Amino acid sequence: MNLCVQSGGAVGHFDKPTVYRLIKEAGFSSIDLNIDTCFNAGYLKDHMNEGKNPYEKGPEAVIDWYRADIDAIRDAGLYIYQAHAPFPAYRPDAPAAFVDYSIETFKVALEVCRRIGCGRLIIHGISLTRGDIKHTQKDIDAINEHIYTSLIDTAKETGVIICLENLFYGHEGAICEGHCSNEYDAVAFIDHLNALAGQECFGICVDTGHLNLVGKNQYKYLTTLGKRIKAFHIHDNDGKSDLHLAPYTGTINWDAFCLGVKDAGYEGDLSFETFRQYIASRYVDSRLLAPWLSLIAATGRVFAERIQG
After folding, report:
1. Is 0.90 surpassed by the pTM of this model?
2. How many CB atoms lie within 10 A of CB 195?
3. SS3 43
4. Could you report the per-residue pLDDT of 194-210, keeping only the tens digit for each?
């Protein structure tokens, strides 16, 4: 069972070749490549179809944007296990065409994954927030259906698995369950999409931090999703904020997590989304990045032993 770590936030004090070399030396084998960092949601909404988004220019433009990362990853002897698409695909204040614009962006992202040898792309669904007074849950369900079914042909063509993610959202100080946070709803939706596709095109990326924020039982969620789990975002928090900390620095029950992964039958890479340690090294001391990476990788090895034992 190999270990994976997120690329986002890794480059701070160091150049890309140095960062990915440190990741490799720490004991990681693969990367969760953030191909969502070339713009943010506000930028995307405000500059639709102006030619400023590299995704509008096709997969080669996106690959060129991340060329330095891709080359440094390969030079370090790492591979790209999963990638994260731009998000979100919808905003209540966005033009009506925003959803279809996002779908075209996702199609390009799937082709990017195919070309760089990445087999899994994480694409966030959308949630009905309490602040959205224009839509009902039925409306949101229809938008999610439209987004994911529109990607089936491209998923088949590229052979890339689309990974949904369990989400949360905040409203007036409260943390609320978002898309795929309910394990039974997630199972039903993924199975529905795969039935429409006629093959396995969809799975889930389980985010441990998001589960903790909405008070979910890690073991129950993992074993309910079972073989539908295709990727992970492993990180810790205090149950109040999405902190993206290293395991054992928050309140997650990691024994339940490891047993859940084992009983779910997951055999892929364990991917850590612990970028707070990266960011901290920028402001504290860059010399801490290597030992922090090594500690996270050591934790991953302990997890792998428990899962496979």
Report:
1. yes
2. 9
3. helix
4. 999 999 999 999 999 99
